[in-house]
Amino acid sequence: MYSMTACYRPLFSRIVGAAVVFSAVTPTMAADVARKPLTDSRISAATAGNGVEIANNSNESADWTALADLTLAAPVVLRGTVKKAKRLSGRAAMDVPAGELRMLVELALANVVKAPDLLPAGAEFLWQGRPGADGRPPLKAGQDLLAFLEGPLPGPKPEIAQFRLVAPQALRGWTAERDAAVRAVLAEARDGPGVMVTGQMVTGVSDAFRSEGDVAGVSESQFFLLRAGGQPMTLLVTRAPDAAPLVRVATGDVIGASAAAVRPRTLLWRALACGLPPALPKRLAGDAALAADYALALERLGPCGPRGIIPTTR
Fold first, then answer.
1. Rounded to 5 degrees, what are φ and ψ at 44?
2. pTM summary value
3. Which member of 183, 199, 221, 225 has the lowest number of beta carbons within 10 Å of its beta carbon?
4. What domains, with CATH codes, occur in the chain?
């Protein structure tokens, strides 16, 4: 048994190479899976992670938002190498739709990235989805993966834990860039030992105004934002002659003291880029200059990117 905090640490040598597994078992099936082997014919497609993305050659920069979503949503994040990937057939795959396959997969642990409690040294998971472009199963021995999980769920053997993928895309090919991105998200999200920040996501615009400066061409728009946790946040767009407009965010009660530019690939950027509505509320959109400043802020932030799982508060 071992426990790891929300940071990346290598496993002790006595458990390196132990099998770790996760299955997308629905809560209603957990007890049934615990009583029967994973190859039992009663396992349905609900137990598998459909559409899992395991490719290593995708655009990793565009993948950052999905990784952040998964990292915050998953109680457990593991890195491991595929030890076995067995395609199931017969009774164990009788309900698999045409064009898909079901596999029983073992991972050999390399690291525990995040885990809230003790974990046994073994686990296993079912994966279901389409074969690769070559028609072969996409999961093969030797692949290095990141898995974003919830659990463990009780299994037939106490030394082998069963996990559930937190989303269909919660299994990713490991790369150094993805590794670093996940670790950075965890570091930024910590609000003390073992405490993760919550309530960060922007959910809307509550009010806004625009003021003209004493000098011609100087102006500032302030957009007061709603957040899931209720904390104050203000988006500012400042214009001045012969200077590029400034887009800043204030996260404190005193706007001037806390206003700063937003760094991309951070949780603050994610909260804004993924949470701000595409346009101001109708009662504010009638001010053309205010609406133009809001559109400029959205342009500067850039697109949110594909999501890994839609959060409610983080």
1. -105, 180
2. 0.77
3. 199
4. 9-189 (2.40.50), 202-301 (no CATH)
